[in-house]
Give the backbone structure.
Amino acid sequence: MDVNIIRTDFPIFSNNANYIYFDNAATTFKPKCVLERIKNFYENSTSNIHRGEYLIARENNELFDQTRTSLARLINCKSEEIIFTFNTTQGLNQIAYSFGENLLKSGDVILTTKIEHASSLLPFFRLEKKYGIKIKYIDVEENGSISLDKLKKSINERTKAIVIAHVTNTLGGVRPIKEICKVAHNHNMLVAIDGAQSVPHMPIDVRDLDCDFMVFSGHKMCGPDGVGILFGKYNLLEKMDPLLMGGYMSYRFQTDGTLILKSIPYRFEAGTPNIEGVIGLGAAVDYLMEIGMSNIYRYEQKLRKYLLDRLVNLKNIKVLNQNSDTGPILFSAYGVIALDAASFLSSRGIAVRSGDHCAKTLNEVIKKSSTVRISLYFYNTKDEIDKLVDAISDISVESATGSYF
């Protein structure tokens, strides 16, 4: 894998030569193959899908379905177990809705942690209020992982599900999902995984992990905005009601209330989808698989270690998750609020994220309400990291405040 060749696939680098981007946990750049696929849709082959018998519509049907097939190959599942959503958030809301409507009862318990993304918590807060389902928090390890012993101690006869990230968007760390699933299934629990920060970065095999659900987003893996993916085991999807109702997802409905839904996955895909987004995502998935997810993971791990080894030697910052083995790196600068630190880096042409990272209960664990986050992808380079570290080393109360003036 040659990162210099890879960077030529991304027009943003040639169009913004001095733009150094380390906010890949939020969204990622798009390669030419994705942009060209979308451009071709708008310029040459615009149509709706699954509704027309004319040639362009049939061609778009095929491209749309090819994306589903590519995603199934990427994570090793059946194509009918792939449901298109508009983002990870919608996928998690679909799971929560089905938990409340079909799978759980008042008094049942869902396990999670305090360092999850809002999309993994808020849909289940609603279940707590509306259905009387309880949420219980497992204490996490320093690196964001989950101890199997603590998991086992958190389970009782009313515990029915666990909803967690594979890799969190803050502390990172690859959690032992396969082992967690084994413990959960031994207690007849369901396991729903937020894969937004893992699927784009490493090989994923949902059959091997044995998770019941996994959700992730296209825009975090070089695809367009507005496309999410929900994987669910087929036997569980059969028991679930759709979150959204509308066009295309039914065979027949009548004024007497008769409703016959289409087969899975189509019953979960009401209305006109983000067609160009799904088609563009297909190009992104094929692009990533051509590079190789194992190659991407190995390169990112080397790059992350190089960054971390340099950051921990700086005297003006504290790395908050240096024991985490993958994912984003969080730091705070002594005497400088996170927003000012990020603004100073921006003045040097470097993009990072500051704030609570949509994980507002994280502060209950790390005792900080705001941090700076660095997140890498396979198109970042050591040279960019050198510039980042040099800039971070210059952060001070005076320099960060001065970045506003």
